[in-house]
Amino acid sequence: MVEEKSRRTLNIQFLKKRTDSSQVMVYVILVLLLLAAQILSPGYLKPTHIAGILRLASFMGIAAIGQNLTILTGGIDLSIANTITFANVIAAQIMVGRNENTLTALLAVIMMGMAVGLINGAGIQWLRIPPFIMTLGVGTVIQGVFLIYTKGAPKGNASPFLKAVCGQSFIGIVSGIVIIWAVMAAVTIVFLRSTPYGRKIYSIGINEQAARFSGIQTRRVTFSVYLLSAVIAAMTGFFLVGYTGTSFLDVGTSYNTKTIAAVIIGGTAITGGRGSYVGTIAGAVIMTILDDFLTIVNIPEAGRQIMQGVIIILLVLIYSREKHKK
User: Fold this and answer.
1) How far separated are the first and last CA of the chain, in Å rounded?
2) Residues 197-248: pLDDT tens digits?
3) DSSP 3-state assignment of 66?
4) How far apart are alpha carbons 25 and 21 in whole angstroms?
5) Does domain 2-325 have CATH number 1.10.3470?
6) 10: CB partners within 8 A, 6+ apart
7) How do the domains of the chain map onto residue ranges?
8) Alpha carbon of 137 to those of 22, 87, 128, 134: distances in Å?
9) Which H or E run contains 170?
């Protein structure tokens, strides 16, 4: 037992060193991408424009926290997109533009997120349904539920307070949602790096069976990861109401693909056990810059989708080749 624990500790330390190097590389890619955007579109690096990019990246970055946790355990969450949309719809209908309803709306979407997470976690850990299938199925059910709930026409709008937090700047060019993201990012990084629970997540991703034999309650840890992922997705939907002002049935559509891409580009292994949210932050910003720049140069939606896919594949290939050299 002692030897097994020592071996797991050494594995985690080794993988952390590999993770640090991949994080350096993704930030180098981010800097090069910004320089390329400035050359092709002079004025791209204006503070006000960068502030706008960070505001947009905040929503993806927050949603990617949950995705990062699930992928670190060797799983995945494909219910994030529809959880975001359902939370978005619920929040708007509860707030109806009134500040006094903001807290009630937040509590409601958190409870909805907990329900989704409980179902995902129970299906994955106790019914032994693979995460890909379970979360995809739950996401599809959620989509049907919010279509019935709204009858295809969502109503309501954000409170003035939430609009100010998510859409306006408080400190110069920094908006409230960026500050919220920064706080959540700091908590996530410390949580993964410096707590026993974070180390358990890495251990499960490295080898779930070995983690179980070493005394880790793998089912409880994995269950809680999917619970957190769903709650964070629901909170993202809540914040998005403040940014858009109202709810939309397609507001979360792209978040499954983009959060996975942000996590993988950020250096987290899709098989689990290696990675950090530090890299995912850069991954979220890179994804936002790609979408923003392609829009600026008037690439049609279909072309943007194709180019984004190709660029994501290229970035992941660059990371993979670098990883194999080490």
Assistant:
1) 30
2) 999 999 999 999 899 888 899 999 999 999 999 999 999 999 999 999 999 9
3) helix
4) 6
5) yes
6) none
7) 2-325
8) 33, 18, 14, 5
9) strand 169-171
